[in-house]
Amino acid sequence: QLVYRIVFPYRAPIVPYLFPWIGSAVTYGSSPYEFFEKNRQKYGDVFAFVMVGRVMTVCLGPRGHDFVFNAKLADVSAEEAYNTLTEPVFGKGVIYDCSNARLMEQKKFAKAALTRDAFRTYVPKIIKEVKDYMANPEKFGQPGQKLEVLEVTPEITTYTASRTLMGDEMRNKFTKRTAQLYSDLDKGFTPLNFVFPNLPLPYYKRRDIAHDEIQGQYLEVIKKRRATDQIGEYNRDLIDAIMNTAVYKDGVAMTDEEIANLCIGILMGGQHTSATTSAWALMHLAQKPEYQELILEEQKRVLGDNELSFDDLQEMPMLNAVIKETLRLHNPLHSIFRKVMRPLHIPGTNYTVPKGHYVMVSPGHTHTHNDWFKEAAKFMPERWLDEEEVKKVTGGNGTATVDYGFGAVTKGASSPFLPFGAGRHRCIGEQFAMMQLGTIMTTFVREIKWTLPEGVTDVPPIDFQSMVTLPKPPAEIVYMRRNEKN
Ligand code: HEM
């Protein structure tokens, strides 16, 4: 450390490490928040560490959020940071396998599938998918038996997202073979693939075959729609949304392969994040079943005997508080990073991050820190019903607080609460995710009551080994069906 400080007086202090190249990968990877906090105590909010040949400069806290999420395009690049991982999974020409300007336009193309009008049509479809799933004993087991949520929530997420965003043709193609393809493609989305995006191993080959076959399924639907539909006439789903708009400002049209790849990328963006959020929500509600009853009471008040609609979801503060609290405690993405493209000074310090290094930000660390959230380790949804508390965490950066109908969220990058990121790479799926999670949780609470299995008193610890922060298995619940009148 001393030698490093002498040689590089204008760089952030670096966490000492024993093994070159590997650096602090193991301690960081097994428990990133602990790693961040330990080093924050030693070095402050800004420090660097080595991880598999990359130097990461971590910028913690809301100032770090602002610095990284709002960094200039010429200074940092997400595509340089992520594309080795994402290109083999999503495919060519989309998301990070193109310029940032192209990505910004692609996000706009997708927007027509992510409007309130679209959500109004999605809610009944999601309810039906969830009810069908819960009625299937092969999938959902029997009341009284243990149910592994890590098996249930990825499937429910896939079925609900594909029924709504991909449309009926793609959803109806969902056979065991398709499930296998998605599972193979998913396996290409691991921390290992960041480091070794391509190795001559069967696992990589299966990922590539899966991509090509899934792309082929999309192409079939796209070609059929081109042949039979008036393009621009329909707005059923994400495929329509992109087909109807996919011409860049400079007149270049996306190819059908790129449209298919964009659909794969967008669906993948929502898959793990929403599946893990619903898994954690189920676990917390199993540990504190009183919240199931509060959500149910709220529903009865809002819905009476009616079926849930998208507009009703916005009248349910407790439901939304439970989802926000889950996202606070279990931000699916524990670290977000960018590659530095030209020397980058960190405001408020005398450090400059050199070109070729990375900057890293962790809203999840901020979310779970007592400096920013009272009793931060506790699952307390009611904190989101306390207006003063909410103001503190949503007023960041002087930017207007925007209300999408799910309670206040902010677009300001310096907010302490940023589960969906901020700035140019901010999530486009936030409102879809809130709608999807809200509908799934509403349906669960209406149909069943659940608890942790006998003898289990706490939710599982966090497993940081995958791309998102999952509960460490077993993550089990035991359920009973509510009778019709409940
Ligand atoms: C970007 C979180 C659901 C599509 C992001 C980012 C975060 C995030 C933190 C910013 C990444 C960065 O700055 O590097 C989440 C969470 C979700 C969720 C917590 C659910 C609980 C979804 C859904 C979709 C989606 C449902 C699609 C329908 C995207 C896309 C981007 C993105 C396309 C843009 C990437 C970019 O511009 O670089 N998401 N997301 N996400 N997300 Fe989500």
TrEMBL record:
<dbReference type="Pfam" id="PF00067">
    <property type="entry name" value="p450"/>
</dbReference>
<dbReference type="GO" id="GO:0008398">
    <property type="term" value="F:sterol 14-demethylase activity"/>
</dbReference>
<dbReference type="GO" id="GO:0016020">
    <property type="term" value="C:membrane"/>
</dbReference>
<keyword id="KW-0408">Iron</keyword>
<keyword id="KW-0479">Metal-binding</keyword>
<comment type="similarity">
    <text>Belongs to the cytochrome P450 family.</text>
</comment>
<comment type="pathway">
    <text>Steroid biosynthesis; zymosterol biosynthesis; zymosterol from lanosterol: step 1/6.</text>
</comment>
<feature type="binding site" description="axial binding residue">
    <location>
        <position position="427"/>
    </location>
    <ligand>
        <name>heme</name>
    </ligand>
</feature>
<protein>
    <recommendedName>
        <fullName>sterol 14alpha-demethylase</fullName>
        <ecNumber>1.14.14.154</ecNumber>
    </recommendedName>
</protein>
<dbReference type="GO" id="GO:0020037">
    <property type="term" value="F:heme binding"/>
</dbReference>
<dbReference type="InterPro" id="IPR002403">
    <property type="entry name" value="Cyt_P450_E_grp-IV"/>
</dbReference>
<keyword id="KW-0560">Oxidoreductase</keyword>
<dbReference type="InterPro" id="IPR050529">
    <property type="entry name" value="CYP450_sterol_14alpha_dmase"/>
</dbReference>
<keyword id="KW-1133">Transmembrane helix</keyword>
<keyword id="KW-0472">Membrane</keyword>
<dbReference type="InterPro" id="IPR036396">
    <property type="entry name" value="Cyt_P450_sf"/>
</dbReference>
<keyword id="KW-0503">Monooxygenase</keyword>
<dbReference type="InterPro" id="IPR001128">
    <property type="entry name" value="Cyt_P450"/>
</dbReference>
<keyword id="KW-0812">Transmembrane</keyword>
<keyword id="KW-0349">Heme</keyword>
<dbReference type="GO" id="GO:0005506">
    <property type="term" value="F:iron ion binding"/>
</dbReference>
<dbReference type="GO" id="GO:0006696">
    <property type="term" value="P:ergosterol biosynthetic process"/>
</dbReference>
<dbReference type="InterPro" id="IPR017972">
    <property type="entry name" value="Cyt_P450_CS"/>
</dbReference>
